[in-house]
Specification:
Radius of gyration: 32 Å
CATH superfamily of the largest domain: Fumarase/aspartase (Central domain)
Helix content: 55-70%
Oligomer: single chain
EC number: 4.3.2.1
Number of helices: 19
Order of helices and strands: HHHHHHEEHHHHEHHEHHHHHHH
Shape: elongated
Mean pLDDT: 94
Pfam families: ASL_C2, Lyase_1
Keywords: Amino-acid biosynthesis, Arginine biosynthesis, Cytoplasm, Lyase
Enzyme class: lyase
Main location: cytoplasm
Number of domains: 3
Length: 503
């Protein structure tokens, strides 16, 4: 007992204990006043409008509470420090409302709980972070299309298993990146739709005996639907895990692209050059141009992945109910990973948008590669009617002969092809020099790849145009949602203006 009394004497004999305040309540209060105060007030106004419209409160009482809400000193609240007088921000704000409105101010909490209110505030905060991430990603997608348009005819080698594979274009690569990022945005948009549903009216977990209108509150706050089941409204955390998973996948995908760009910016590769505003030099080596912007994109992306994974781990194996695990301690990690995603998309936009591409060296590297040998095998099947597996074997033998004798692709002759054919089918093909040259030409290789999704100029142009229109529609929709949410507060103010004022 002496030990217990000693601890309690140091910590305090009533709630909140000193260590509990320091570890939990103070950080939660700080995060809430900075991130959650605005949405909290929106919820207050919407709930108030509904209570009056449903005749649960009179217009006179509603006006008193409205005036108190209007008179709240938000600067004072944001500058306040946690002192233990109130459990959290909600109770502090409620005390201010009651102080300003009188006893009737306590009736603002009719027919609701901190449970449904808290989840609503979290959802409203998260939906803004999701929209910011989406908008930043959309800007990045615009830049990818612009850069791709500049490089429809920039030939380069494509790689599989990190080895030279076939010729393609830089535009083809960037369009592949675009499609991956665009799918990331689709996942983020789906996470927004899941998030943007109202739990309000669920109260603690079973709704309320008051004749509230859940749909009206949903409408006033810009939610696109209800979390209908009242237990799901306070227990379901999948809106959090979906938002974390979507941004985690997005940052992983971006990190893979940055890995390529860092490799291509080395002197050995010399494919791209990062613009001067985004490189740093060495304190000792004057020749250095360190592409640190790409390194920061990579490391920040990893940081965002870590924050998103933290969210998932905090939800993992928790009870299916209203729990603190999914509330104050978790939310900052979710905000962090989305803030990080927004910022790395912004940085990626300017870095990739200003890349200098060494077209000549990429073209020469393509010409000096055996990457077009697939086309030679295809031509043997098309023009000479040799079964593909046999023509593949002839082409493969030709490559081995050239490598053994240090013969460059541009130096291959019909005699070399005959030698390979004799080894495989026992007789020469006696094809022309032009046949070999055309089959090994990387430009012709690209031109022939005009199937849907191929690297040919015409197909690249078609894909860019189609994606431009789709992206334009997506951006318009994002702006529409932002405008709709921004107008909610004004709508509620207009609705309450007609109420009679208190003396």
């Amino acid at each position: 007992m002496d030990r217990i009394q000693k601890i309690l004497k140091e910590e305090g004999f009533t709630f909140p204990g000193r260590t509990y305040s320091h570890v939990v309540l103070e950080p939660a209060y700080h995060n809430a006043k900075m991130e959650l105060l605005g949405p909290m007030l929106e919820v207050h106004y919407a709930h108030l409008v509904m209570l009056v419209e449903q005749n649960i409160l009179t217009q006179e009482d509603g006006a008193a509470i409205r005036d108190a809400l209007n008179q709240l000193d938000l600067k004072k609240i944001r500058n306040s420090c946690y002192d233990g007088q109130f459990e959290d921000l909600f109770f502090f704000v409620e005390s201010e409302i009651i102080r300003l409105a009188g006893e009737i101010g306590g009736s603002l909490h009719l027919a609701r709980s901190r449970n449904d209110m808290g989840v609503a505030i979290y959802r409203m905060t998260l939906r803004q972070y999701l929209l910011q991430t989406i908008q930043s990603a959309e800007h990045f997608l615009q830049t990818l299309l612009e850069v791709a348009e500049d490089h429809l005819d920039t030939l380069m080698l494509g790689y599989t298993h990190t080895q030279q594979a076939q010729p393609m274009t830089f535009a083809h690569y960037l369009l592949a990146v675009f499609d991956v990022i665009e799918r990331d945005v689709t996942r983020l948009c789906h996470a927004f739709q899941t998030c943007n549903r109202s739990p309000l009216g669920a109260a603690a977990l079973t709704t309320t005996g008051f004749p509230i209108n859940r749909h009206r509150v949903k409408e006033l706050l810009g939610f696109n639907g209800l979390v209908e089941n009242s237990y799901d409204a306070i227990a379901g955390a999948d809106y959090l895990s979906e938002a974390a998973s979507a941004v985690k996948v997005a940052l992983i995908n971006l990190g893979r692209v940055v890995q390529d760009l860092l490799l291509w910016s080395t002197q050995e590769f010399s494919a791209i050059r990062v613009a001067d505003p985004y490189v740093q030099t060495s304190s000792i080596m004057p020749q250095k141009r360190n592409p640190v912007s790409l390194e920061h994109i990579r490391s920040l992306s990893s940081s965002g992945v870590g924050a998103a994974e933290t969210v998932l781990q905090m939800i993992h194996n928790t009870p299916f109910g209203d729990i603190n695990d999914t509330e104050d301690d978790l939310q900052p990690f979710l905000w962090k990973c989305h803030k990080t995603a927004k910022e790395v998309y912004s940085l990626s936009t300017v870095v990739i948008g200003t890349l200098q591409v060494n077209k000549e060296i990429l073209y020469q590297r393509t010409k000096q590669s055996f990457a077009t040998i697939t086309e030679l095998a295809d031509e043997l099947t098309r023009e000479v009617n040799i079964p593909f597996r046999t023509s593949h074997a002839i082409a493969s033998k030709l490559v081995r002969i050239c490598i053994e004798r240090n013969i460059q692709p541009s130096q291959i002759t019909s005699q070399h092809l005959d030698e390979a054919a004799i080894h495989i089918i026992g007789k020469p093909l006696q094809l022309s020099k032009q046949f070999v040259e055309k089959s090994m030409d990387p430009i012709l290789f690209i031109q022939k790849r005009s199937q849907p999704g191929g690297p040919a100029h015409s197909e690249g142009r078609r894909m860019i145009n189609a994606r431009k229109q789709h992206l334009k529609d997506r951006i318009i929709e994002t702006k529409r949602i932002q405008h709709s949410l921004a107008s909610c507060s004004q709508t509620m103010q207009e609705l309450t203006q007609k109420w009679m004022k208190t003396e």
